Fold each of these.
Amino acid sequence: MSSWATTRRRHRAETIESQFARFAAWCRSTASCALHGRDVGGVWRGLVAAEDRSAIPAKGLRVAYSGFDIKVAAVPDVISPGAAPDLPNWQRVARAIAQAEAGDAAGFAVHVRETAKSLKVPSFRGMNVTHCADGLGFTGYEEYRKAKELGERLSPNFAGNELWHPLGCVGWRHPSRTPRARCRRTGCRPSRARERGATTPTSRPSWTASRARP
């Protein structure tokens, strides 16, 4: 795994985990949080494990959510709590967790549908094209294994969340037009896919635009 890829994945994992810790602390101190008075981390990990054993249906919708699905769906709200003092995104994800714990994943599925027009977080075609062309997929199983271990170590609450986009490039047969070893914060050439006009959707769901609080 290149040092650039490792640094990128490490930063992402640490950001998600630190924001989740802040979310849990906020719930402990905020009576309006749907998980107030509970061990938020324990509730979350128990829910993920339960849904990975048996996906939980979203009532009224023809879809069921696994533990992986709720991780991907929850990340944007965990990272970006929304405007103070209400922090509506943290309020929403807390309600969705409590609802899923009671056997209904609709709190996640409805928000995903409203935002992404899909019952689950989609893999955006434009993103896949540019990521694969820029060499952001895994170079082989060994890199995947190391990335998986890194995520499990740095972000136990959201381990595996960052693996799905690189895995989407498995089988990509064309050589990278922008080798990662050459890519820097400035001066990195755009991929040929971008030069040909392939872009991500103009209305970008929060899954592609999340930012941590300063």
Amino acid sequence: MFIHLTPHAAVVPYGICTDDDGNIWVAAKGGLFKIDKHGNGILLSKKHDFPRKMGPFCTVVCVQSKILYIFTEDKDRSTQFKILNYDGSEEHSQFIDGRVQSMTATKNGRIFLTKKPDEGQSEILSAHIDNPLDWEPVISSDQIAFTSLCAIDDGHLVAATSAMPVNMYSNQTLCLIDVEKQSISKHFSSRGRERGEVYFPREIHLYQGDIIVLDKTGRIQRFTIDGELVGVFGKIDDYTGNGFCIRENDVIITCSGIVAGQDGQAECDDWLEKMVLTEQPLVH
């Protein structure tokens, strides 16, 4: 365990990023938390009064020395989107119709987000950090749901998809999206637990020109942009990882799970794990 989040009320963490100073930002049902880069303490917190009422998939992204933060209440059909400075002050705040499930941004400030499917339709929208009110459609589908996004550059995305209706039996793939053509240029991987397969991907990030994918099996797999498997570069317990970020060669993962308390009773717990991205040997 790198950082124990539960004592700080950072319950059920999802999104995570690091800023230009190396400090860690965590978006949780409990709120938004800025943590010292060495894990020595909470530098800033914006806590929610009623964490149990908050929805899943709260997300935080750092771009152009700003913090992009989204969250929603569980029964609400709109998402709050905020742009913050490193001291926590707000530069922008708005409501976005629908429940946002994933958000990513390019270094040039182009933001992409996808929402939970509404009435059988899944879509990806885009805006620029300088004009965050002007959201434009990128692509939509009534066959697949876009569940997690990673911006390669202003013109290309990697997305995790799930066949609709989304349930535990849905097929999943990864795909490349051409933003300008508003189309999927390639599908790769498929649903499964073997090397190169994905099982409900939770988050995707760029790393040294490749992409890193964390799924519900706890595997951290590395693919080329063209979809070729490079290898498995880490593993945590199944179903505990909610999201991750990469800082240099370390991956920092937001985790939730059931643990044994001091009295021996099962209880919910939340924490951050940190590990070095290292290719795992193939086990026969």
Amino acid sequence: MTTVQSPVLEFPAMLHGSVGAVRRQVGAEGRRWAREYLKTGGFTQPRRMLQVPSGELLEMISAAVFDVIPRPRWRIHMFVDVFMHLNEGVPEEEYPRARETFESFCLSTPWGALYHAVSPPPPQSAERMARRLAALLRFWDVLQGPRYAYREPDTHHTLDDLIAYIYGMTLEAWCPGGAASVREHLALTVERMARATREDCMQAVLRVIPNVVRMNTDLKYREELNDLDFLRERLDALRPEDFESLSSAYRFAVNGPLCAWDRALGRQ
């Protein structure tokens, strides 16, 4: 009987090390990518890659792991610094296209798909988030190996746990009742997001808002923020690009407008 070997998972070596080492390496790679884009109009894999063994811990957000004695580890969250160096290295008028090209490049890799799913840069529209989450699904099997440190300190999530923690509300908003597994629920959500109309997005956002309100204990005008007529009126009043930016029903995208509406109610 032939044993099918799992594909080897490799991440950029620049993301492994101490905080200072990772910051320097990410800065150097970001500047290299900026130069490469100006020369070729595209991006290539980092020069050094490291294998990520099964069970290895990936820190997805700062301070998710506490070390009495700091030690080198995978600091995926520090990939965000790349965007600063791209911004500095690419002319302003060219930067939007460079960002689009860079995101497409990242989504073709397991490490880039993971980053854009866990820490999605704005805009977080239904169309864009569908692409990001579809990329994550393509690498789902190989990303099962590591463990993930996120917002619960010293909790080592599986990939399923991580995505359920971040996107559970969103998945339920798009596919109430869902599916048996996180992966299947995510796949159904991606399918619906990718072909969603504005009204589909509106319904998903309205379904996710009560959960976001419940989680945000700082909100004062909770009754109004749970009133469907009030919410639809506020959502309809948004500029098209502002509605688009939260149309995925990603809870962190929805939270910002809710806070703004809560403050506005307090000024009345």
